[in-house]
Specification:
This protein is an alpha+beta fold and 184 residues long. The chain has 4 helices and 7 strands; from the N terminus they run H-E-E-H-E-E-H-H-E-E-E. The strands form 2 sheets. Strands 3, 4, 5, 6 and 7 form a 5-stranded mixed beta sheet that branches. A two-stranded antiparallel ribbon has the order 1-2. A hairpin with a 2-residue loop joins strand 3 and strand 4.
């Protein structure tokens, strides 16, 4: 009986040492991971500038005009940066800002060759255009994003949901391809 107790005690000590040894290895790995994260946080983010084209309707709403812009892509994607520039509008008297100032961009995500652009309800609520205006609003968004060669289609959503139309004139329920016919 005494021998059984000694063997049990030795087994308990041995298992404790094995577990402690494993824990030591895990702590060393955790420390390495933590050090890597800390090192990455101390690196300064690069402020990459890229040239893009954004598309605005001309003042008589007969075509979309490409405008060259240089944008900073620090802390955001190039797609969101392009949409931000488009939403800022234009000061050029020969061009028109078509996205309402009250509209908010909720995000831009890319899955494969399709970009999803999500706006809040302000896009619909504050848009005052008719069928031509709606076509040029959609065309501005679609052509700006499909100017990136990897983006072939654009899905416009409102508050994260697909909608059939923005103002009843154009089907936006599915991803749309580049609208070259508006470039003339």
């Amino acid at each position: 009986m005494k021998m059984t107790k000694i063997i049990a005690a030795l087994m308990l000590v041995l298992m404790t040492l094995v577990v402690a040894g494993c824990d030591k290895d895990n702590n060393q790995q955790s420390n390495k991971s933590t050090n890597t994260v800390v090192e990455n946080k101390t690196e300064k983010p690069t402020e990459e500038k890229i040239k893009i084209k954004v598309y605005f309707p001309n003042s008589d709403a007969t075509k979309l005009v490409a405008v060259d812009k240089t944008v900073k892509v620090a802390g955001t994607t190039k797609y969101k940066a392009a949409m931000d520039v488009l939403m800022e509008g234009t000061d050029d008297s020969k061009l028109t800002t078509v996205i309402p100032k009250q509209a908010k961009l909720l995000g831009v995500t890319v899955n494969g060759d399709t970009a999803k652009v999500d706006f809040d309800k302000g896009l619909i609520k504050h848009f005052n255009g008719g069928s031509t205006g709606e076509e040029f609003l959609v065309g501005s968004v679609v052509n700006t994003l499909t100017d990136f060669p990897e983006i072939k289609k654009v899905q416009i959503t409102i508050d994260g949901r697909n909608v059939e139309t923005l103002k009843g004139h154009m089907d936006v329920s599915k991803p749309l391809s580049r609208m070259d016919e508006l470039l003339k």
